[in-house]
Amino acid sequence: MNFNANAAGRPPFARKVKRVSDVNSMGYNPYNQQPYMNNPIDNSNSQQFPPDNMAPNIPQQPQLQQKQPFDTTKDMGYGYNQNPSLNIPPQMQPAPGLGVFAQPMVQDMAYQYGQQLANTGKTMVQQEIQKYVPLIKLKYYFAVDTKYVISKLGLLLFPFTHSDWSIKYAQDGPVQPRYEINAPDLYIPTMAYVTFVLVAGLVLGMQKRFSPEQISIQASSALAWCVFELAIYSCTMYISNIKASLRTLDLLAYSGYKFVGIIVSVLISMLAEKMGYYSSLIYLNLALAFFLVRSLKGQILPEQQPQAATSYYGEVQVQQTGNKRRLYFLLFVALTQPVLSWWLSFHLIGYTLPTPTSR
Where are the beta strands (DSSP E) in the chain? Predict the structure, then answer.
């Protein structure tokens, strides 16, 4: 016996209900846009439907944000196009019209190449300058400190109290001036030269003769005499065939110490006039001559072993080679300093202003 659940509620002689799968073919429209109140045909049998705002809230799927394409009209110069979504600061954006030169790699290469050119040029300039001016050797003459400067100035003014005049040497050369008071330096001569020019300008101003031309004349004349003096000393050593450990810069340093005495003499003349000037100039130049003789003696007259020679009769004779020429050169250097000191400073002393003539 077969059981059918649909047969229980059906009338015995009724028509079988037709099943329709497509409701649209029967004219059924569940989403009627016109409300039933506005239908004039039949309002009694029309089926009521909820309005559109009462429709169930169906969650919507989130829309994916579409990626913006690259703008092909703008070229950043880095080999790819600019993306408007990228936040590039203004200082990082390349300048327009540079093209390949705006790329960071090209800029780094250009910077490195320029730095190499600068280093190469600096090396070439230093090599060319060192042919005429030994910069490495100049560092030795300016290696001083405050204690050395004070001690050296005291030695120049009062050299008679000093006993040890020998210069100490290290393995690679003489000891720096800051550790050896007897070593020559160029710091004191350079500062004394500049101070002499300033003192000369002060004296000229007190005498109402100051002018920029006078200052330039004082500076150029003093420098020219120093160069001329150095050339004379070098030529004398070459002609006399004097071989010594004395260098050209050593001669320049020793000849520049005379400006210390000139400055002191000119300053004293401002208080004691001519008498004070000549008295101080004589004493300071005698002290300078004594200082030069004792300092240059160990370099120009080194202690050498005398050479023994056998005469025709078999007698042994002791010969001293070139000591007289060395001694004459030493005295020549010591005696030229007082003359040059007077020549560079006598025109600054005792000048009287011309009195105006009355008509």
Answer: 307-310, 316-319
